[in-house]
Amino acid sequence: MKNENLAALLPEIALLTAAVVGLLAGSWLPRRRQWAVAVLAAAACLTGLVATAVTMATDREQMVFSAAFAVDAATNAGRLIMLGALLLILATSVETVRRHKRESEYYVLLLLSAAGALAMIGASDLLMLFAGYLLASVPAYALAGFAKDAPATEAAMKYYLMGAVLGTTMLAGIALLYGVGSATAYTQLHTTLPAAPYAVVALGLVAVLGGLLFKIGAVPAHFWVPDVTDGTPAPIAAYVTTLPKIGGLIAAFRLVHQALPMETVNWPLLLAVLAAVCMTLGNLAAFFQTSVKRLLAYSTISQVGYLLMAVAVATRSDLAQRGLLFYLAAYALTNLGAFAVVTELPHARTLDDYRGLARRHPGLAAVLVVCLLGFVGTPPTGVFLGKLEVFSAAIDGGYTWLAALAVANTVASLFYYLRWLAPLFRLAPGDQPAQAQAALGRWSATAAYTAGTASLVLGIAGGAAIPLTLGPLLR
After folding, report:
1. How far is residue 49's CA from residue 158's CA, in Å, rounded to a whole number?
2. Do residues 139 and 151 make contact, with C-beta atoms less than 8 angstroms apart?
3. Beta-bridge partner residues of 71
4. d(CA 144, CA 217)
5. How many angstroms separate the CA atoms of 259 and 341, rounded?
6. What is the 3-state secondary structure (H, E, C) of 304-339?
7. How far apart are CA 438 and CA 436, in angstroms?
């Protein structure tokens, strides 16, 4: 296939073009006008959303550039989720980086990393997957150290070192699969890997999955998540716990679905075990956290466990794809809503700092209630429908034990979310909340209200959104 239609990559091109133009413009704009780069970034996201909507409306699904990139239902749904989430992150970031001496660089790094995550979503070739991995990772390392203080420096070093080690491991796995499969394209690997040596294929798969597990913050590549989330500004923590997961999970789903026949290695069982460990460890580690950002960090690890259930049954259930994509959309809104509240209250670092929030900032308290109960899967939030779809897919795919464990973990997670929710409605001692609950500005508050409302709308009108996730993966 020699289809080199650049128009098929318009969302990715829009982000990359905005990044280049933003970097050049930021070098000349005075500091008080660096906000223009944020407007440019938002315009690139809107351009990508419009281009994706046109592609979906005209049913122009295709394989481009020697079948290295697939524009299909999963790619388009991933683009909508990713670009919508990036818009919320841009809004959440406005007050945090306004008039910062590296304001334009901040938005450029966000655009470049998001473009890499988009490349991972549609990658149908191992080399394309690794190129997306690098583009998504390297700017994110710089974002993690953006504050340039001690916690940010430590976070950036841990993030970089784990990413470098697991990226190298991923590249070694690609080399192994290429060596025994004589190809890097998923469709060709699907044909050649069944005849390859079992041990080599298994080792190559584990190595490639290691890189993807790092991107999504899953066990055993999760150690960077709490430190990076806690050591970076809240908008950056929102980014690293949301957008890379979208790219990594859809990329993992496409990899196992398109490139790995079940007779090669028992990858469904491997992913099921990883999902079980992920959700359990994340919940147990979150139980007695007092830092709100560390609690959200371990919460994201547990949420990845639920999402991995859909990847484990990628070829065993027709419900897997729609469950994964819908859950990702709901998770992105819920996670960004919670982090937007944390951004809006920069001095409220512990659970006790939120005592009495319902009286002082009732709107923000309402968003927190929606998002934290949404993480549990309380109706009518979007995560409720997402969990219902994913749990149903796991049962349909023959992993009833995994669905049962997920239900038990869901019930257990209510404990630590309530530890955060309960103080919202208690009276605070003295004048403590006046300082701890000082609001940052209107942009992050608007992002919080938007994400919280959208999470409820997605749960109530989920029937209208689910058709957007349907459609075969192209080969």
Report:
1. 34
2. no
3. 62
4. 15
5. 41
6. HHHHHHHHHCCCCCCCHHHHHHHHHHHHHHHHHHHH
7. 6
Q: Where are the domains of the chain?
A: 266-475
3-state secondary structure of 185: strand
**What pLDDT digit, counting tens, does each position of 307-319 carry?**
999 999 999 999 9
Upper half-sphere CA count for residue 356 (Cβ side, 13 Å): 14
| Lowest mean pLDDT, pick from 197-201, 377-381, 424-428, 448-452 | 424-428
pTM: 0.95
* Residue 81 to residues 38, 324, 328, Cα–Cα distance (Å): 19, 12, 8
Q: Give me the count of residues in the chain.
A: 475
Which of these, 282, 208, 281, 210, lies nearest to 241 by C-alpha position?
282
Where do we find the tokens 């597990």?
213
Tens of pLDDT along 111-130? 999 999 999 999 999 999 99
Distance CA 129, CA 118 (A): 10
Q: In angstroms, rounded to a whole number, what is the distance separating the alpha carbons of residues 232 and 145?
A: 7
